[in-house]
Amino acid sequence: MPLSLNHTSKQVSPSLSLLLLPSCQKSPPKPISTCTTLLVLSSSLLLCTIQCSPWLTQAESKRALTMSTKVGDIVEEFHTDNKMSTVNNHHETSRKELEDASRLPALETAYTDILRHLGEDTDREGLLRTPLRAAKAIQFLTKGYHETIDDILNNAIFDEDHDEMVIVKDIDMFSLCEHHMVPFFGKVHIGYIPNKKVVGLSKLARIVEIFSRRLQVQERLTKQIAVGISEALQPKGVAVVIEAAHMCMVMRGVQKMNSRTVTSAMLGVYLEDPKTREEFLYLSRRT
Ligand SMILES: [Zn+2]
Predict the structure, then answer these.
(1) Is pTM, for the whole model, over 0.90?
(2) pLDDT band at 257, cuts 50/70/90?
(3) Contact 219, 169 (CB under 8 A)
(4) What is the whole-number distance in angstroms between the Cα of residue 226 and the centre of ligand 1?
(5) Is 195 helix (H, G, I), strand (E, B) or coil?
(6) What residues pack around ion ligand 1 (CB closer than 5 A)?
């Protein structure tokens, strides 16, 4: 028995023990171990209370024991699901790593060629490992090609009776413009109005990552984030605004140091209802 219990006090009732489950299932993947621990503890507490309770009738004990067994089964299922998704994620990660590793030599050679065509001496000390570093860097900066929304939203969508606007603003975004392969970066503001389903807030930032870690144009990036959230959550509306500085404008060409490009994508009620759209734009601008 993992806990010492005061057998004379009613510490855990069967209903309390079972009530723990829905709230645990709503938690995002990381705290699952905490939830599972809670469930295991509550299951143990319950069992102990049943075995040691003089105030329960035989029928009550039997019913409570069944409930306790159910909690145990659910804990077991929880562990199995968790293990399965960890194993799947692990396989997926290894596959991506293998793919990246197999493409690394060709990329390294390509970067060596680029340096030579720039007139550099690729044998000088400072550049010896540059092609390899650059190859790894470009793989990281475009890692979004390997990722899908399904991968990251696994277990992170929860049923919730909430239909007010949710806004997450100032999400950092770094991307590469597909015309010049130089960075553009800035902030993303996301708003959505749930339709009985909400997503863990950090997952919105992960969705931004998936689409920004590719060769992009800002307009498409904005729309992909909005459509991605819309498809995953089926909300009443999604609004996305991106403000970004483009190094291809700042460092070359027109060299406008402080220029910012602002793009927006509005879906559902944000498109149909000007008031809702205004509310989002007002709240996302506020510091
Ligand atoms: Zn560009």
Answers:
(1) no
(2) confident
(3) no
(4) 22
(5) coil
(6) 177, 179-180, 248
